[in-house]
Amino acid sequence: xxxxxxxxxxxxxxxxxxxxxxxxxxxxxxxxxxxxxxxxxxxxxxxxxxxxxxxxxxxxxxxxxxxxxxxxxxxxxxxxxxxxxxxxxxxxxxxxxxxxxxxxxxxxxxxxxxxxxxxxxxxxx
Amino acid sequence: xxxxxxxxxxxxxxxxxxxxxxxxxxxxxxxxxxxxxxxxxxxxxxxxxxxxxxxxxxxxxxxxxxxxxxxxxxxxxxxxxxxxxxxxxxxxxxxxxxxxxxxxxxxxxxxxxxxxxxxxxxxxxxxxxxxxxxxxxxxxxxxxxxxxxxxxxxxxxxxxxxxxxxxxxxxxxxxxxxxxxxxxxxxxxxxxxxxxxxxxxxxxxxx
Lengths: 125, 207
Known about the structure:
Chain A has 125 residues and is mainly alpha-helical. Chain A has a single domain (3-106), classed as Cyclin A, domain 1 (Orthogonal Bundle), CATH 1.10.472. Chain A is 53% helix and 3% strand. Chain A contains five helices and two strands; from the N terminus they run H-E-E-H-H-H-H. Chain A has a two-stranded antiparallel ribbon with strand order 1-2. In chain A, helix 2 (32-46) runs parallel beside helix 4 (79-94). Chain B folds into two domains: 11-45, no CATH class; 49-188, Nitrile hydratase alpha /Thiocyanate hydrolase gamma (Nitrile Hydratase, Chain A, Alpha-Beta Complex). Chain B has helices spanning 11-28, 36-47, 50-62, 64-72, 74-80, 118-121, 131-139, 141-147, 184-188; strands at 94-99, 104-109, 157-162, 167-172. The chains are: A mainly alpha (125), B alpha/beta (207).
């Protein structure tokens, strides 16, 4: 039975600065990776890798960094981009993955044939 | 436009690739199982949401005896339906239904924090946790309901139900007009999360 944790996790973000997008009472994901990153954060916290509150604080900090970015270089608002940034921060801080392993994740790109845009967001790791 | 603001055109693909790499690495290291993420998300997508509450309400509309049982013993009545396990309340907290009728309009609220019948209504809206809504909902529910677009006549009683960690209330709204002959499925499609919170009525379909 895992209803309690999900409820706690989702409700703890309710109405706060880090509230997830919601549509008709359900979480709203536009892309598959948004769903996956949300599920990864929940799964890792449930597995005891970090406290959910630590993740929440990391998310609040990631959103605050975006808000503090100057207009000219501020990337388009994207809740799940900040969510991913917060998750990578907390994964690093909790030691779930080593620095080398995280570096592998950071350089992951779409399949060959596509070149990343040179002006990567300043908020991306 | 994108050049001016230096938007990263590849950002979506880059984020997707990072998430895939992160998940693959965590599975490879044995931190997560290959189905951990899907199992967690399945809950939000198929098990807990307002679609459950809508089915319960639709059954109560077509079966007056079920409605009586639902109000008398909500977890037991919910268990009669073919809904996912855990709908009647996880780990001890109970859900309780209150029915609107010609004499009473019900409103649910949580004055302490944001207790909510999550398995049947899904995630609550952002304003449910707002201190002003919580305070005014108790002090002047009719005024709050007017702001939501419901003018409750003075002859009708307004009851406010305060959810807690022990009891989480939800509302069985009144069945709208022009729904004679509707199937349970058709009826359920009319029920909104807000109507099950008591801040909206179920709109009648066009005749």
